[in-house]
Input
Amino acid sequence: MLCASLLVLLCSGRAQAQILVEAEEYAAYNAVISYMLNKRGARPVKLILLWGQTAINGSKLTSPDWKLRPQGIYGITKDTLDDYIARNDQPQRLERLFDLKVEYELVNNNEYLKLMFEGTFRKKYPDSLGIIYFSRAGFNREKTQALIYREMKTPNGQADYFLLVKEKGIWKVAREQMYWIE
Output
């Protein structure tokens, strides 16, 4: 009986830790999206399209060219980077858990291909940023630093890394590092 009780406690503790990580992850995503919207200035965004699963991108940060580039992400801790790489070995489905000031939709691969190949993306979504892909967020042990990779797909595209810090319980973008642009 005692073993069964301990097992239940251990499992519920893991479940609570997973819920906490998910809450932190979505809070970090929200901070990146808010940052993006604030950067846009006067052009309003009425709808955000988010890819329905996370992008797998951990390998790009461990490639030799990344370590040699002088414009690397200043201030990132080893445990944040290690967690980022570990969490991005498999894609994860995203849920409607974003807390945004604008409407959003989760888009799947079939919808994306249809929009891009038909060339109807800008016609259907004229005030959109494009389709946004996120990696999983990597965190330091204290959950006060996070790293997220973000890609925006339109007929063109752009990819960036965001280093976030948590100050007074709120995630904020500390640094944006462009990775590529088309």
